[in-house]
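Re: your question from the hallway

Yes, I did run it. Sequences:
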Amino acid sequence: MYPPGYTEGRGGRTEVSVNAMDLESELIDLSDVPLCDLVRLSAPELTEAIHCVLTAIVRDGGDLQEQRDRTLRPR
Amino acid sequence: MPAGTDERPNPLQRHTVTFDVFAQTCRGPMPADSLSIVRATQYSRRKLVFRTLLDLVSTTPAAAGPLSDPGDAWRVLASSEERDQSIATEVLMYPTVGAWATRIVRRLLGTISETVPLWTELGYLHSLAAAAAIRSRVPFTLRVPVMHGAVNLPTLGQVRLPCRFPTGVVTLDHDRHGLHVRAGSNRFVLQPEEPTPLFLPARSHISVSRGSTLRLRFEDTDPYREFSSPLPPDRLDDVAFGEWAKLLAEAWDLLTSSHPRYAVELANALTMLTPAKAERRISAASSSAAFGGMLVSAKTSAALLAEAMVHEVQHSKLNALLDLVPLLTEPGDETLYAPWRDDPRSATGLLHGIYAFTSTVEFNRVQRTRADEEGGRAADFLFAQRRAQVREAIGIARRLPGLTPLGHTFIEASAERLAVCERDQVEPDLAEVIGWLNREHRATWKVRHHRVDPSCVDRLTREFLRGSRASREEFSAPEVRANHRKIDASWRDYLLKLRILDPAAFARVLADRDAAIPPVDRAFVERNYLTAAVVCVDRIERNPRDGLAWIGLGLSLRAQGDDEGATGILDFPELTMAIHEQVHRETGMATDPVTLAGWVGRAAGPTTA
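Structure:
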């Protein structure tokens, strides 16, 4: 589940350590794929990524983070 | 639509995040080069969502209704990219586009329903393709939807039709002569970017201060500007827009002078600001689907606006980080207490709050030393309140079972940042009020959302009636069921804040004979704690389910030094109230709330009340 290179240190929470190496993400790199190629692209990892996106969207659906109004007013 | 697929021999690469970028994200404000990496990863994510929705559309061709084939719209967008990549990227990365893309995927999957026809919403794809093509001077013809009487062109503006169309379709032809609009028998030509009664250009705002530039779109027309279901345009008049522009300029000046690292971050991440209507009753909001966008209510000072902007951009960064690395094994159910929220939050929501409010604490730590008297008092208050809230939330987050090693690192980074802020002293009267507010909020949350285990109530009631002493181990963990009991906000909360923030107004409100201040709240804020307790007991005798009276009693006992009684009510309000009711059911007699609270508090032992 964890990215490679991560180890849990001994002695509990405060001693959990993370190796200071680069972290490979699950996110596939489409930043340089031209839009005209995007719809034709086919790869097993893309299929898996699309499945993950669908799962995440159904679960979170663009989760909104809200700060409540702080205006002073009586109830 | 993706009929012919391109079988690429090389596997797709995955984004790699350097540990430095991860650590910078944890530490707060990020430099421009790290933010450009974050933006690139968000662009990948956005493209992935688009590929997902295009796949879905290809399996449901009827979804497009009377619009042009979505494949044609995509080809127009791709042509725009070939002409000017930066414009296509800017349009695709526009926050409303992200919010819409996530929403339309859910609509295509059937997980949300809506009265607006599916094709009308799907047509935002056509609209954004048209906008990119117009901006990059690519000719096209597309049938696009009309929504709320207008054709939306994200990042560009709105075509206002000279007739009312609740929903409908128009044909846009773009060539070197301009944009030809065909709506039924109406035909006209526009030169986009030139304001006319038929075309409202998107509003932009630019502030420059100390060589730094804040450039954003001020979004008051796009249907997805609030990251939710489509809204009609709500164009601010020139005066209102001018007020926003003035305050944004002042906020930018403040940020560049007093918070330069946060200014760098905003200059490189914030792209859209939507003015929130007062009736939304929010201070600010952002969406995990809309990197760089924020919804902000009108503020009374540049400092409040700057603080809201700093806060919201933290959410955008954390959302981007969560797309890259796992901080939690699962987001968790919405069962957690977050001291700044009235509703139960998920683990993800708790991390968001910790991260964003740590920046709020840091922001106000600076502000309290630089602002004028009134602004300084407000900054003092926010500094102390948010610091106490983040401190408590970090304690909750550290116990989350789903926290990964990276998640622990993330939380400990916030704890380190907070530790720096803990060195600062606050005035005793302010610390006192913050303590009351936080105790009241926590207890109110428990009354509202905690549902006690009936067998636990039975067991403890029997022991109470026998006069025996119970132990903490006998308490069952309550179930969190959102809003299972109604409880209003108290006047106490309002009056205590007023006592600190505006003493003159506080005195006026107390002197106002027409103000319907409940006697218990008046007594409490005037520090007549014994009177407050007596009034609360009287209210409880008349209505044992009066949650506000119970909490008022707990606070009053705490103020008088009755820690056991305070613990029984403030830490276990739902349990104490339930035992009180059960005793009445079993004996027909009401038991003394103070005696019962002390009994529960003794069983609980030392806690946080």
